[in-house]
Write a structure and sequence with these properties.
- It is globular, with a radius of gyration of 29 Å.
- Helix 11 links the parallel strand 10 and strand 11.
- The relative contact order is 0.06.
- The strands form 3 sheets. Strands 1-2-3-4-5 form a 5-stranded antiparallel beta sheet. A 5-stranded mixed beta sheet has the order 11-10-12-13-14, sandwiched between helices. It has a 4-stranded antiparallel beta sheet with strand order 6-7-8-9, covered by helices on one side.
- It has 4 domains: about 80 residues, Alpha-Beta Complex (DNA Primase, Chain A), CATH 3.90.580; about 130 residues, DNA primase, catalytic core, N-terminal domain (DNA primase DNAg catalytic core, N-terminal domain), CATH 3.90.980.10; about 170 residues, Dna Topoisomerase Vi A Subunit, Chain: A, domain 2, CATH 3.40.1360; about 120 residues.
- With about 550 residues, it is α+β, with helices and mostly antiparallel strands.
- About 5% of the residues have low confidence.
- The chain is built from 25 helices and 14 strands.
- Helix 20 crosses helix 24.
Amino acid sequence: MRDVTAAADMVEVVSGRTQLRRASGSRFTGRCPFHEERTPSFSVNPVEKLYYCFGCGKGGDLIAFVRETENLDFVGAIEWLAERFRVRLEYEESSPRVEADRRRRERLYAVLEQTTLYFERLLWEGDTGEPVRAYLAERGLGEDVTREFRLGLSPGRGLVEKAAERGFTTDELRGAGLATVRGSDYFPQRLMFPLADARGRVVGFQARKIHENDPLRGKYVNSPEGDLFHKSAILYGLHLARTAISKQDRAAIVEGNTDVIALRQAGFEPVVASMGTALTERQLRELSRLTRKIYLCFDADAAGQEATLRGMELAAAQGFEVKVVTLPRGQDPADAPEGFEERLAGAESYLLYRVRLELDRSADRQEAFVRAREVLAKAEDSPERHEALRLLADRLDLPKETLGGMASAGREGGVRSALDAPRLLGAGERLERDVLAACVAHADLLPGLEELTPEHFDSELNRRFRAMLVSQTEDSELTALRAELDARAAEEALDKRTGQELLLRLRERKLKRDLAGADLARTTELQARLVKVRQSLAELT
């Protein structure tokens, strides 16, 4: 890995995503490739190979940048860089079992890729695919966008034999979800939607019924769960939507694959489908790397289902800003893709939607109050919560005294909510970050940092970073913070003298806190130490 990152040119890699210009020293700046902005706030350090955006807060090292922009995992990013900068990779020896598993997965990816190409040819070449091409045209889905999503046509039989001719075994075909236990084709003749992982590798298929005499019951049938395909982990279209989701800081989640295709064709790109299920932990984990703002767009029937509600609740509980777009009964986003932005503009917060739903489906006034109160009790104080409270009061004609007693999750017995914390801790957090930033920029400040204790820092994250700097070790989980501090040191021109002053300010803060709770015997000692710190500050300033 070190050889690869040493050989790679950070500016060349980043310039493939956004135009850079030289700033002060060796640093470069430009518009952030992860979100829309007019004024450049994206900073690149080509020496340390770090990047940070002051606008959206994204930051990291060269590997993180490639992973994010090319939709790759860690190993894939290393391989991508090695290929681009012509560095030969040497893989560490692994156990025979691990190596066998790796080779098997490579074979499964290979057979799925070749099968996808075969399905594409059947759809677009020859007479067999004509009825399906006509169906797609009738749905308003053009050839360019359906080719982008790699739609195809399964033959119904003969796939197993063709794969065998190419050297794939029946066991591999079963592992890829292409063959039944008996060794015959898994899918009858159907319209095929390849399902890809975050890197764009095909891991399975969703097959749509096109003939009345189809032996399978479901209108849509997925590949069986296997070595590569796990339905709960897939968001349809994510590999194509990642860049747009990150740049626009939002994701629309719809039900159907054709909805995703139609919206992308209409120019709306940050959209994925949830594979017909409620949102799962794994799906939300993928989205959380790109955005915290999601729009759930379902028809009126689906939005009321308990499973769908659990997915909404899970997203809200994990800190996503969730908005709900309820479509007219029987209508899909694909029915009017050009007006989708207007629908999003009219979306309501999850909290307001949920309270409205509980009020609508309760048998009486008392039940409605109890159910709405349970929903609101889990929510922290926010404008959305106040809006939901107003709806509750209006619908049930509640007195102000009743609403006043409905405490939020973050505010009980006069205790400040978590929403107030950033305002209270902002100055202290800034001081800690500036101290660390100065120490990142000037290694000769590290002895002064080592003299401080973890208790000088309120933030656990800042404590971890201090420990890493002092011990001169590396922690990959702190790379993004290092990138932020590196950029902040340059942006604020933190020189060595300023760093020394900041270290003293942090000492002064700790001594003042200790004095507030000290007994008489210790007060004299602490006051003497505080006088020395202030004398040192006076000499610097």
